[in-house]
Amino acid sequence: MLPLSNLEKVRASPANERRQSDSAFNTTLRLETDLEVHEYKDLIKPKPNPRPRTASVDQKWHMVKMVKSDVQLANATWRRVTVKFINDMIPPDNLLYPGHLAKEKIENKLSIEVLKELGKSFRLSKKKSYLEINAEDFKRVLKQLLGNVVKEAEINALFMKVDFNAVGSITLNQFCTYVHLIYQDFFPKTITFLLPARGEPLPHREPICRLCENHNGTLITCSEHGIVSFWSSMSTLRKKKRIVSPNPERRTPKWITDFLIMSKYNKLMVGTGNREIQFFEISSFHPYCQISNFESIPLRLDYAAMPDDQCVIIFGDMDGQINILSIKSVGECLRLWKKKPKHENFIASVSLRSIISNPNIRFVCWTVHEDWVQQVKYCPQIKQVISCSNDANSALVIGCTISSVDVEQQMKFVKENSFSKNSLIGELEPPRTRSEHDQTTFKVHKGVKCFDFNKKKNILVTGGMDRLIRIWNPYVPGKPTDILHGHSAPIFYVYYSEEDNWIFSVSSDKCIKVWNATDYSCINTVRPKSHLIHGDLSTVYYSNLSKTLAFTTNVLATLSIKIKSKPCLLSLFDIATSHSDPVTSIKYNKIFKHIVTSSEGSEVKVWDVVSGSFISQFGHAHGEKAITCMNFDESLRRLITGGQDGNVKIWNYNSGLCLKELTKKKKEELIDECDPAEICDLIYIEMNRRSKYVVAVGWDQRINIYEDNFDSTVHFVHHPSKNWEEDLKNGHTEEILCIAQSASHMLATASYDGEIIVWKLMSGHIFCHLRAPMPFEYQNVSIDGDLSIKKLLFIDYKPSNPCKAQLISNGPYSCIHFWNIFNDGQLLAQFSACQKKGAMVTSMALNSSNTVLFSTDTFGFIYAWDIDGYCGVKAEEYPPPCLYLKHLINKNKFIGVFGQNNLWNIHKPETFEHPLIPFDVLTDALSLPEYISLIPKEPDESEATNNVETNYQILSSTSSKEADVSLHDELKAELIQGLKAMRIDSRKVHASDTVNGIYKILHYHELNKIPDLEIPSCLMRRKDDIFGTDFEYMKD
Fold first, then answer.
1. What is the domain-level CATH number for residue 176?
2. Same domain for 510 and 400?
3. What keywords are assigned to this protein (predicted)?
């Protein structure tokens, strides 16, 4: 253990302290709910204040958006909370299309015919290098194709989503890319299994050689000793039978190597260790015929039915050879073989040499691998065979069935043997080797054990002994397109589901992983302790019909995917959430009328503000690191995100396409790769039409400026410009937590040590330094006195007034500060913004007229401060009038939570969740009315007992007016004891109090006045309802 002096040195490092608080934050933070609260401005009643007021607050609608997170606060961990705001929301009357649902999106109305006709309208640009179309032509053509089913506003919105650079025209490549990415959003992003797995013991002790599925969803297994069993999708055994020859002279039964279902001919095809391929009736298990005398043992079988009664039978053997048997007139050939003499008086048998003389049958043997063939598959779409082995030099091979020069060799063979006496008995050709242009070889370390291929998506997935899953373009064998890490044992099975766009992988230790085939992120992991499947794996199979993973060990186990049912009403204990991880940022887009949210799971979601419906999402934005901040560019068409990985990315958030990555050069970074410089805040600055910049600040203590010009779109990765000289010499010495820009081209940054620096944006010179003094009788509640400043706001007056306050900061010392940045900086006001001792100010927001300031604290309270005329002439000694809004929620209309089942219409108050109360407010003791918890002083036990008895008498007397009900003495004593404990306990600062208290995101918007809900004349409010939200029928 380090001595105390060393511990103090380690604590003195802010970056190290941030890492410690981040770890505590990440392990305890949990998203609880999203809330929306409406509040009239005329409800803000000024408190008694000796300072005269110069003006009153305008009467307008205000909507405050809150995204709440549960954090167990310890010491100064609340400084890790980051908050973002949005101002000037467009009134709901100007929204594009109310009730915007997914089924009404214009993208869903673009059929294949419409896309083809629209593609013909793109013309060559002036540079003659690409096809493009301008906005007017795009609207005209789409209006002609779709008619009156779409509005012009919808077409404008679609054009702006594609034209993310706001140049006034789009290219054909941009439009096709957007449509392709939009259709990918229809695939599910998450998957849940029904745990544990359902299992049924096998009716034998021998391992299963293969698990197949019938056309009706019935699972069929075959053991190595020839016992075929039929199972339902729920792992229930239906019937079984042994299909091998019952020869009493044989001590051990035949070894079954593999089997397949020939559903077109209603047959079972079985490979045996006696170098045979046998056929059985699938309905009665009766033996039909067999082909014997192969040169090698068929280890792995595959079968493909072709048109015109043709099929291809392929098997791989121990010598690494691929044997191909092509049959024409399959039905006729099988009937002729059935008439042949029976082998061992059991099954009709024909030899391979006797059937290859038939012109309808062709047999070819290729030497492909240098090790056993692990899997083989014939792909009718490309008419080629894919096989794999554990040999690294020939791990996976894609080759033709018939060589391109085979016609000349066949003509030569026919000419030489046309008059031979042995022409009636075919001669087997020796194994041959394909030429280089007839096959594609993939070299993989330690070989490939399993694979899957999909021609429509052009995706090839492989897994092997190196525990890695590789994604390939089948036409580029040199390097995989992606490598998926996560398994700790050799890969046993892989499968690509085209319908769901998922990749399933199972390792030999029975660990199951499901991957999103769009961004290759792992969306679910199921370990043996969860699915409880015991024994060694023998086979794995995924059923597309029943959405079930089937496993065979010493049991047959099925693991079903949980299918989401139709939306239904939430029960009392089902709390709607918007993200599965804590929400880190939220932004409002007034052009598309979207709410964009991000989470610590590096996921971005887009919501419709009119109805609250989910629109789209994209994940893995910053890899495994969290998204810490977001912002839009000046056109509001691109989203800019900053992450814990130290990178800034620019997105077309409507399609989820990453346009640019802004990152520092590694040689310029101040810290190593294992400790990245986290981005804490960023802004977008437009100096003029050609000078646009992204400014990011964070743990590296520097102001990083990235150019965002059209010339910079050629490269994907961009590096920042050279840092300002004064930033390097006299800049911040601690982590920069926030940044703000004024209309007069001033830039303000605040750091962890409480220092505020105002910069001249044009020159990069320091304008002034600001440091707040410690308030009188201030008690430190954290190790360093909580000097950090997490939010800065500029007050832009029109006309400008150098005597007024121009800057507001939410720290340090749990206070809000008003600053005049002129004359070397002056502090005009400093006041505590929290009612509870130990609370810290987490965030702030201004309305559009700069007359009301909203702030939040770590206990979850939201305050509205009337700052109209505050610090307008001189410094202020008293705080502005304040009304905290959380306790007035019962007087306003709760709209709902993004992610809930029931959608709302912002134009219709009857669709709101009102009069329901948000779950966290309902269950938080600090949000209860004042007579229960909000008592300013700490009473003694006797006083508390008297007050509790008074409360009990009030409740009991109120109830007696409604009904003549008397409580027993025991019930009365128990009730008094419970209220007493609640009252005394609620005044103490517990970790549980702060868990439900921290708002991570607070946004302020202005809306037009929405009419109040009219109470029907037959209803009246209950007199004993303390919240005023319960009604009862009026008595006649």
1. 1.10.238.10
2. yes
3. Repeat, WD repeat
Rounded distance, CA 585 to CA 581, Å?
A: 12
**Residue 359 burial (CB < 10 Å; 0-12/13-18/19+)?**
exposed
List C-alpha distances in Å: 766 to 668, 726, 811, 821: 23, 7, 21, 11
Closest CA to 69 of 1009, 1001, 1036: 1001
Among 140, 166, 188, the domain boundary falls at: 188
Pairing of strands 347-351, 287-292: parallel
Q: Are residue 756 and residue 771 in the same domain, yes or no?
A: yes
Q: Are 163 and 178 in contact (CB under 8 A)?
A: no
Round to whole Å and give the CA distance between 924 and 926: 5
820-848: pLDDT as tens digits = 998 888 899 999 888 777 788 888 888 88
Does residue 111 sit within a domain?
A: yes
Asked whether residue 826 is domain-assigned, the answer is: yes
Tally the residues of the chain: 1036
Domain boundary among 188, 217, 238: 188
CATH number at residue 751: 2.130.10.10
Residue 493 domain-assigned?
yes
Please tell me the distance from the alpha carbon of residue 339 to that of residue 735, in angstroms, as a whole number: 87
Cis peptide before 812 (omega within 30 of 0): yes
**Residue 439 pLDDT > 60, yes or no?**
yes
pLDDT at 216: 82
Q: How far apart are the first and last CA of the chain?
A: 78
Average pLDDT for 472-483: 92
Angle at 979 between CA 976 and CA 981, to 5 degrees: 110
Under a CB-based contact definition with an 8 Å cutoff, are residues 443 and 393 in contact?
yes
User: Domain limits at 503?
Assistant: 374-405+429-530
Domain count, the chain: 4
Q: Is position 26 within any domain?
A: no
Q: Is 741 found in the same domain as 703?
A: no
Output the pTM of the full model: 0.58
What share of the chain has pLDDT > 90, as a percent?
31
Those residues whose C-beta lies under 8 Å from the C-beta of residue 15, and which sit 6 or more positions away, are 671, 675, 699, 735
